[in-house]
Amino acid sequence: MGQIAQYAINGLMSGAIYALIAVGIVSVYKATKVVNFAHGYLIMFGAYFYYTFAVIFPGMDWAPAWLASWQPGWMTEMREGLTMFSPMGAVLDWAANLPRIVFGLAGALVCNAILGRIIERVLMRPLMGQSVFAMIMVTVGLISILSGGAQLIWTADADFVPTIAPNTPLRFEMFGTMIFLFGADLVNMVIALLMFGGIVLWVRYTKGGIAIRATAEDQSTAYSMGISVPKVFSRAWVLASTTGAIAGAILATRNGISPSLGLFGFSVLAIVLMGGLDSYVGVFIAAMSVGVLEAMTQWKMGGDWAEIVPYVTVLVVLIWRPHGLFGQKEVERI
Amino acid sequence: MINANLKASYGADERVLDNRYKQGFVYGMIVLLALFTMGANDYAILIASKMGLLLIAVVGINVLTGYTGLVSLGHGAFVAIGAYAVTIFNNVFTGTLPAGIMPFLSVPFAVALAAGIGIVVGLPSLRVKGLYLAVTTLSANFIVIFLIEQEVFAPWTGGMVGLTTNVPNILGWELDTKREMFGLIAVVGLATILMAQNLIRTRVGRAFIAIRDRDYSAEILGISLLRYKLTSFAISAAFCGLSGALFAFFYARILPEQFELNLSLELVAALIIGGMGRTMGPVFGVIIIVMVPEVIKITFGAITGDAAGMAQLRAPLQEIAFGLLLVVFLLKEPLGINQITDRLLRAANRWPFARG
Amino acid sequence: MLKIENLHLSFGGIKALQGVNFEAREGEITGVIGPNGAGKTSLFNSISGFYTPDQGSVSFEGNDITGLSPDKRAELGLARTFQNIALFRGMTVLDNIKLGGHTRLKTGVWQALRYFGAARREELELRRDIEERVIDFLEIDHIRKYPITMLPYGLQKRVELGRALAMRPKVLLLDEPVAGMNREETADMARFILDVQDEFGTTVLLVEHDMHMVMDICSQIVVLNFGQQIASGTPAEVSRNDAVIEAYLGAAA
């Protein structure tokens, strides 16, 4: 029983990150009707930006020492007398990294926002009004450009980055067994959930969000009502690339940094279709379910099989419900 | 001015090569291809074989995406199925079946298997359209490659390390040089183009195009969407399977990673660059998709002089070039190279009376 | 020939059709009229199989076809045109009309891939047939190799009629065949519809707003308003019907 709880919690934690990635795909789809096949590679760029600002730059000669490792006097004092692997030690390790974590996240956010804007302006804007097929295939071309570009800029192989939160091991009891977690994973989940919720609320209640929803309903009517559709497009892409930057940073702390981070985009694409493409709620439920299913598969069949869980699930769900769990069926006028 | 366009019978009007210029062009090209097979150097043969193998698969995906309007980002899976099926068939039946007739059984087996799995993968197409299909086919690709890599099937598929393939033996004639193999690929390639052309000028292909252009209008004419969408999937998967079978014959070894998403995207990109839904589209497309990386490789080698530090930049550059090609064509010439040649031909047709 | 019995159809809360009953008699032209939103196109979509009615039935030559898919109905001999032309825009006129012959041909995948032999014979036979029966008949031989996009509206309508005729239908459904046409084009189209009935004995059911044309060529008229059938009968009967006058002109104060 306890085993199930342990794996379910692991699943929910990765599900929350899937949801955060999915938010980018859904928002771009809502505003522009484009399903971004390259979203995973946008996330990969976010991860590499985080790596650049949190690892490469602080390691450079010109960087101040406190950026690479912040060691104020009080911290050194507290460190004295601590045993190895003590929770307090993990917190202090994190505190020492704090400047570069903040610097890394800020850098990733800004750079990815610029990247998202450039992509929208250069590639997607000229295709406004063109066939959906053409727009989707442009994002497919973008996969190669981004993946090749990352390898060109960051030739380094897989590397590690500082975790966003203290990586204290946590133990507690649930259903009579010990559950074992890392603090950083828990904080990642909270960050992902908060961002997801924030975006949903933003889209529902703010002026900018309503503009996105209006554009999703009917582009030309929204345009004629005074909503600047191009602005909505670029806002959606920036939203996607900034959430992608955070998701990328989180993924980088969990999986290490490598070009294969881009593949996450495809599993999340499957999750998004499963949930219904334009429904935040549906996508959230799908992300969480897939996260848990993956964890269960990992438990019962081994880590290999977990990687195809999203793909198998999407096929099953779409055959059963063609428009996803919560998607709306479009009525075709003849 | 292109003349000789007047026809005296419906038969003459229904021909594909309906004037002397087209006939001259096609027959001339076939002669050139034959001369090329005999005279070209090994490097040229290797490049041309790559094009030929890709061409057969792209013709297949043209049937599905170009004619029927169903998007697939997973046809690399069918190439994999063709390649593995032909090799496994061979390994299982070596000794029981005479080597000389093996290809006549193994290739149809591989093609039929690919077509069968194509129908299964195509099933969601009955209920979902467009991008949903792109994702389901993409998922199918991941699943197929994953299964091939599994330890459980390793006794047949070789798992991650792949399989050593065998040389085809056609009635005692062993195609053990690349040149002979290219001859086979060229013949099969021409045959697939001809078959695709035949398809679209008769009932079945017209039904495909009707589904692409306006599916409800096709239904009203008595075209069963179920039947024709699945037929289209089966045909395109079969062509990809055929390409895979030849791929296995051509290379000494097959690995699962050769058939991953990259291959699927390459197929679609070649089709878009060449021209979707056009007979010659795949031909133009594969020439570009194979030549551009080669050109980059050659110029890159010439500039950097094969410096070890720079060599690792080549692959990313090729990848970027591939993506840029696709994006530039979609932005500037979404109907592909075929559209450019059409424009030139129209201009030639009117010359010297009008331009454009 | 084509019998509609007690047809009900609704979308969510909107009742598009509420109890429509009539029969299109063999070899005759039946007209369906009604103000905008009366349910005429919904009726056509139910007859051709795109919508499944909530209640009631459609029968064709005495057989109930309510549950059949559109392509099965086409095979039985039901053809139609659409209000906003549903031709295949990328294809030529000839290819569009050839598609009309789909149900009559037998070429399978294998024959199609080979072409030479059975498929070629059948193609040439089809070509001769549509040239003689459709292209000559509708006087569109000068545009047969033109892509649809190059044709003016009136000709596109005619090509769509041609595509339906190539099916050799027993019943032809025409959804606003002269909508948006000028007087000459309307007269041409009316003449073609009468010729079709005359020459091939086809049963015609048409929806139209052009009262003059409907009154002139139909032998029976069905009037719909807000999904309800408010009258039916000969043109003379319908034009005297109070309910019809009220629906079109509004109630007298």
TrEMBL record, chain A:
One of its GO terms (cellular component) is plasma membrane. One of its GO terms (biological process) is amino acid transport. Keywords: Amino-acid transport, Cell membrane, Membrane, Transmembrane, Transmembrane helix, Transport. The keyword Cell membrane applies. It holds the Pfam family BPD_transp_2. One of its GO terms (molecular function) is transmembrane transporter activity. It is a multi-pass membrane protein. Its main location: membrane. Belongs to the binding-protein-dependent transport system permease family. LivHM subfamily. This is Branched-chain amino acid ABC transporter permease.
UniProtKB/TrEMBL annotation, chain B:
This is Branched-chain amino acid ABC transporter permease. Signal peptide: none annotated. The chain crosses the membrane at residues 25-46, 53-81, 101-123, 130-148, 181-200, 233-255, 267-292. GO terms for molecular function: branched-chain amino acid transmembrane transporter activity. The lineage of its organism: Bacteria, Pseudomonadati, Pseudomonadota, Alphaproteobacteria, Rhodobacterales. Coiled coil: none annotated. One of its GO terms (cellular component) is plasma membrane. It is found in: Cell membrane. It comes from Sulfitobacter sabulilitoris. Keywords: Cell membrane, Membrane, Transmembrane, Transmembrane helix. It is a multi-pass membrane protein.
